[in-house]
Amino acid sequence: MSGRLSRHPILPIPSGGGTVGFRFGRKELLARRGEVISSALYAAGIRIFGRHHRDGRPQGIFCVNGQCSQCLVVADGRPVKACMTPVEEGMQVEPVLGRPRLGAHDTLAGFSEATSGERAVRVLVVGGGPAGISAAIELGRAGIDVVLIDDKPVLGGKLSLQTHTFFGSIADCWAGTRGVDIGTLLAKQVAALPSVKVWLDTPAVGVFSDKVVGVVHKGRFLRLRPEVLLVAAGAREKVLTFPGCDLPGVYGAGAFQTLVNRDLVRPTKRLFIVGGGNVGLIGAYHAMQAGIEVVGLVEALPRCGGYRVHEDKIRRLGVPVWTSHTVLRAEGREGVERVVVARCDERFRPVEGTEREFMVDTLLVAVGLSSVNEVLAKARSYGMRAYGAGDAEEIAEASAAIFSGRIAGRTIARDLGRKIEVPERWSRTAAVLRSKPGPDEPDEILEVERPVQPIIRCWQAIPCNPCTQVCPLGSITIPDGSITSRPRFEGECLGCGRCVTICPGLAITLVERDHDPKRRTAVVVLPLEFDDAALPASGRAVTTGSRGEPVGQGRILGIRDRADQDRRRLVRVEVPWADRLQVAGFQVQNPAEGKPLSASHQACPEPVEGPPATSPSSDPILCLCEGVRRSEVVAAIREGVRDFNQLKASIRCALGGCNGKRCTEPILQVFRQEGVDPKTVVRGTYRPLDLEVPLGVFAAAVEVEGFRSRGGLSAGKFAPRTQRNAKGAKGRRS
């Protein structure tokens, strides 16, 4: 269990809970009780989960969210997604070598007809993230019966991965509070509402033309007939195709956050990130909190799309960020060993001669999110009363998803006849929280003649105002009253540090001017969310400016760590008098350094590391499930194919376990590159089931409260999937 975190500056490390023993192949391993297979394997240093049936390529993970099929393993004779299947005592897990084989027990003798239960539901909410919970709370407060389902064992969705503090406003969406804590608050609120039933480990697997939603609950397929359906299923990570994108070690930044922040696994030593949105920038920060070296981050656009405060704070810590750069390829035999990046032009084409190589074991892909909205789209096409909320409707920050859920919940309650108001202010607030970052203001710091002065480095228009709410003297204000405008300091300062403690972007520092007039030094108070292991042993730190540029040297005088600071420490650093306004942080890792690939590239400033590597095939895989390469898709397009169903029939694209969720967008991009408007391409036919479901689930006949059976089979004849040692229930995956 050496691959686990032994300490974390934000998250508690569990000391109890016990372990369970299991086997992977011939290896005896331990897992934390309730842990999923993929996390237990990564904690044991295992990154290869199987071999592809087409060419024997090693396979690992990508989404760790049940949205792809990369992590397929065989557990006790049944093919399952490792990221969705908890380890059980004595479980035998095998890698999938080719296509999974069915065991001798995979029979359904006596099975004659589906025995699903059916139940009418007033409101069915699909998704237990911030939007779904918030909607259920509003509906529950209105006294409306709700069934809230989620495919995970706990509520919260992506909130369970967000150890950073929220932006927005304190009054509206708990700004200044950590996402993991907001998830707990919402879960407690919904648990207190008697009209809301929460079903966990319950995925929605399809919606049908008779306006029924199929779900799997307690090892049984159930038919829910909702009067109203609300889909708040969140988002899945987009993919980026390049040579080597199929190697173990290339996976989503959200998957990485799941391993680290949810399951407390340390999956890598050195990683690289492609994508400068908030997911990538925050992922880099979370990696450093877990003691992982972030070698660098590239963004193809001229500027990062995420909040500048997120970018600035990782730059200050020592993470290089290169804009107008992209990943050319990942290289390695059985997993990522190095990545090659290059500058790209305004049309995102690599600039020859700018290639740089970095020795890493992991490449995180953070190039955007796509809505998980298949159930919503199909329900609307069938004429169901279906609503969307959160990322299923529009990709935005979690704070915006909370408001989206509140609005959807009250709108549904009103449509069901409740006399309830949907405040117009909510829609305006939601629009502000969804807004993209605005233009940067000049990086100008005005010094005032005060013994202590807060320096606010919030240069970009983003929705955030907690600092204005906590100053005991009211000296930090937003002149125009908009939470997207820059806060200003005017007045006196007590030096209490509350503004430093609560700022979600870690963008506020304090300058103590009168520290040592004789030595001409000042003290800068800096926010820190790392433990002592990140501090220099000598007490001398390399100080950095707003954008991470080196400023000079500072001496750490002390650390204030109080319970009311919510796991954020305040570090007092003595700096030369001339540096007092420039110092915004200090390095906790050394920026990557090295040599360019060849002597002809000596003039390029970007750092590299390691020897040149042999380039792999320039024909990347687009459909990982079926191993379909770009050249095969191009050939089909040039032969006149304009229909995804034809691609399925001819080259097997989108026929795998992810049902086309992962490869559709990359394939549409190839159509565009071949001069075909993606709008003219016929999309693939949606056919439930949306997720893989064992046939034994349809045969199980365990009674569930409130359901009526549609068949005459008894509970004794077909046992549920959860009874692994019973006979006859472990059917093949459909």
What does this structure look like?
- By secondary structure, the chain is of the alpha/beta class.
- Among the domains are: 1-111, Ubiquitin-like (UB roll); 117-235 and 371-434, FAD/NAD(P)-binding domain; 452-586, no CATH class; 626-659 and 663-680, no CATH class.
- The protein has 16 helices and 36 strands.
- Strands 8, 9, 10, 11, 12, 13, 24 and 36 form an 8-stranded mixed sheet that branches. Strands 1, 2, 3, 4, 5, 6 and 7 form a 7-stranded mixed sheet that branches.
- Strand 8, helix 2 (130-141) and strand 9 form a beta-alpha-beta unit.
- The longest helix has 18 residues, at 398-415.
- The two termini are 35 Å apart.
- Residues 109-115, 599-616 and 708-734 have low confidence and may be disordered.
Number of distinct beta strands? 36
| CATH architectural label of the domain at 117-235 and 371-434 | 3-Layer(bba) Sandwich
Output the CATH homologous superfamily of the domain at 117-235 and 371-434.
Answer: FAD/NAD(P)-binding domain
Content-based structural category: alpha/beta
Cα distance spanning the termini: 35 Å
Q: Which percent range describes the beta-strand content?
A: 15-25%
Helix content: 10-25%
Low-confidence residue ranges: 109-115, 599-616, 708-734
For the biggest sheet, the summary is: 8 strands, mixed
Backbone shape: globular
Mean pLDDT: 88
Under CATH at level 1, the class of the domain at 117-235 and 371-434 stands as Alpha Beta
Work out the radius of gyration. 27 Å
